[in-house]
Amino acid sequence: MAERGKLIVVMGDEDTVTGFLLGGIGELNKNRHPDFLVVEKDTTINETEDTFRWFLNQEDIGIILINQYIAERARGVFMAHDLR
Fold first, then answer.
1. Which residues does residue 64 pair with via DSSP β-bridges, in sequence order?
2. Which CATH architecture has domain 7-81?
3. FRET pair for 44, CA 20 to 30 Å: which of 2, 51, 58, 74?
4. What are the tens digits of pLDDT across the range 34-71?
5. How far is residue 62's CA from residue 15's CA, in Å, rounded to a whole number?
6. Per-residue CA distances from 8 to 1, 41, 42, 60 (Å)
7. CA-to-CA distance for 25 and 19, rounded, in angstroms?
8. Between the CA atoms of 54, 23, 40 and 71, what dihedral angle is there, to the nearest 10 degrees?
């Protein structure tokens, strides 16, 4: 039986996320949870970090794309993640 491919998810500003959505990356899973996050001025660092952790725990996600300014904003949680 063929194994299903992994998903690419995106965390970024509205323009970046919209571009990826228009390109076919991004959807709602069967539980209606999006595999993208639009980070706006009122998005908390905790929400950003929690979403990142949630993405990490999903077995069907292979790549997490993150805008540079978001990575700088929540650097602690990203730096603490071991890529091995």
1. 9
2. 3-Layer(aba) Sandwich (3.40)
3. 58
4. 889 999 999 998 999 899 989 989 888 899 999 998 88
5. 22
6. 22, 24, 25, 9
7. 9
8. 60
Domain ranges (residues) in the chain: 7-81
Residue type for position 31? N
Give 63's DSSP letter: E
**66 near 72, Cβ under 8 Å?**
no
Total-model pTM: 0.80
Q: What are phi and psi of 8, to 5 degrees?
A: -105, 130
Helix (H, G, I), strand (E, B) or coil at 33: coil
Looking at residue 75, what DSSP letter applies? Answer: H
Rounded distance between C-alpha atoms, residue 4 and residue 20, angstroms: 21
